[in-house]
């Protein structure tokens, strides 16, 4: 019998949606995923992947894999508008970039906290408007723990899928790695972004600028800050940015 891994969801709709996301991602053909063997009302059963979670040194390799996935998604989403919900087929509509994200950022920035960020509610709104004309790809939640090395890069966890600018999902990878493992070397971060951008450029897509990437990092810093001490997040992002 093949070893398996079971993911349980709080609702049947969440389980169904994750299965559809998995199918869509797999069909793009650029991101390795475990086989989905069975689904019922609240669970998905996948093949077990005998790999290990990446370390910070693996970030450039994951960036290369993410770039291929984002390029394929960008081409598939040619008719999508960044800040509008989009039907990806199979009866699944994914959220636009602004939907819920801007509201959540503004809410967190308004709360009393020790967050050290140049972001303000006004800057968030300005950036949401600014990227409206950008070509969208997807945000899959590239948490470093959502990948396994086999030694190939294999993606796991298919709960989240929204439209997003190029580089936004990569920024989640960086922030999640730093908040999990501690401060990252600047050269490593730069190499990771450069690797990603080289693939975009070769595909004829616009690259993610340093200004954009810094903004996406700060957005993820704010959005992930409530989870310090949970889900493997042990280090606040500001300790990595000095």
Q: Which descriptors would you attach to this protein?
A:
two-stranded antiparallel ribbon; transferase activity; 242 residues; 3-stranded antiparallel beta sheet; 14% strand; alpha+beta; Aminoglycoside 3'-phosphotransferase, Chain: A, domain 2
Q: How many domain units?
A: 1
Portion of residues within helices: 40-55%
Structural class: alpha+beta
Question: Which second-level CATH architecture applies?
Answer: Alpha-Beta Complex
Number of strands: 9
* Tally of DSSP helical segments: 7
Strand arrangement, major sheet: 1-3-2
Strand percentage: 5-15%
Note down, in words, how this protein is organized.
This protein has 242 residues and is of the alpha+beta class. It has one domain: Aminoglycoside 3'-phosphotransferase, Chain: A, domain 2 (Alpha-Beta Complex). It has helices at residues 12-28, 59-76, 101-110, 121-130, 168-181, 186-202, 210-224, and strands at 4-8, 36-39, 43-47, 86-89, 92-94, 137-139, 147-149, 153-155, 162-164. The strands form four sheets. Strands 1-3-2 form a three-stranded antiparallel beta sheet, with helices on one face. A two-stranded antiparallel ribbon has the order 4-5. Strands 6-9 form a two-stranded antiparallel sheet. Helix 3 packs antiparallel against helix 4 and helix 5 crosses helix 7. The longest helix has 18 residues, at 59-76.
């Amino acid at each position: 019998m093949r070893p398996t891994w079971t993911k349980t969801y709080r609702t049947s709709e969440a389980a169904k949606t994750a299965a559809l996301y998995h199918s869509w991602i797999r069909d793009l053909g650029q991101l390795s995923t475990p086989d989905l063997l069975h689904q019922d009302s609240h669970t998905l059963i996948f093949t077990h992947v005998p790999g290990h979670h990446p370390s910070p040194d693996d970030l450039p390799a994951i960036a290369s894999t993410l770039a291929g996935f984002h390029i394929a998604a960008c081409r598939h989403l040619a008719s999508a508008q960044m800040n509008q919900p989009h039907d990806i087929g199979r009866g699944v509509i994914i959220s636009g970039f602004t939907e819920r994200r801007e509201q959540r950022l503004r809410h967190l920035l308004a709360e009393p906290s020790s967050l050290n960020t140049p972001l303000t509610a006004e800057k968030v709104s300005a950036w949401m408007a600014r990227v409206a004309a950008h070509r969208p790809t997807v945000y899959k939640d590239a948490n470093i723990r959502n990948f396994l090395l086999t030694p190939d890069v294999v993606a796991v966890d298919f709960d989240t899928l929204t439209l997003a600018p190029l580089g936004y999902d990569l920024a989640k990878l960086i922030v999640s790695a730093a908040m999990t493992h501690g401060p990252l070397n600047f050269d490593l971060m730069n190499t990771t972004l450069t690797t990603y951008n080289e693939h975009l450029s070769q595909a004829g897509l616009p690259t993610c600028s340093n200004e954009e990437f810094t903004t996406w990092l700060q957005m993820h810093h704010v959005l992930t800050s409530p989870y310090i001490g949970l889900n493997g997040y042990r280090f606040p992002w500001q300790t990595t940015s000095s």
